[in-house]
Amino acid sequence: xxxxxxxxxxxxxxxxxxxxxxxxxxxxxxxxxxxxxxxxxxxxxxxxxxxxxxxxxxxxxxxxxxxxxxxxxxxxxxxxxxxxxxxxxxxxxxxxxxxxxxxxxxxxxxxxxxxxxxxxxxxxxxxxxxxxxxxxxxxxxxxxxxxxxxxxxxxxxxxxxxxxxxxxxxxxxxxxxxxxxxxxxxxxxxxxxxxxxxxxxxxxxxxxxxxxxxxxxxxxxxxxxxxxxxxxxxxxxxxxxxxxxxxxxxxxxxxxxxxx
Length: 260
Prior knowledge:
alpha+beta; 2,3-Dihydroxybiphenyl 1,2-Dioxygenase, domain 1; eight-stranded mixed beta sheet; 16 strands
């Protein structure tokens, strides 16, 4: 799995109400959310077309005061070495590295500006899965499609992540007083953008999921199911349409699709 170093690989929702989150995301994303095989831990797996694409867990497992959130994991070839390098470059390790039996070795970190992210060193597999089965697939609905970092120092943020994951700069799109929107790439493919903090209260990573249908329909579903859309549908280069909002418990996410 070394060839996937630097690729987004998993999305994890920590929420104040796992059952309510299941009721919200299943019809919205076309997911089926069910129990995992983790003993003594209520960790739910969201599946799309039979493939695991995200995890759901309770905020009770996290430090008091942690808000509902989506955490993005990046695949690495060596979790311990990546965690060491992150600290060397000014980041912090908040959990791990630890083993998940049958899955791999993971850690949760922050970058120097304070944005949280996860890393995962996948366990060796007898049979490597098809890329179509991954949680990250920019061609499929219901999978991770784009990442967006909002940071107090996006230029320093890019240097940090480039050192860890080998990401490279793509196009920089001027956004007026907000500065540039710096697109970043993995192996020549655009996978996300970095920008100034804007309206975000803290540095963070925002995951975009592929829309299951028209983005305008997704907006109606979000607002009609207790969530709230703060922006969108908006057209972006691609061309594509996006919407950004939060679920009923307050976890922020975005959707992206080819139809308004």
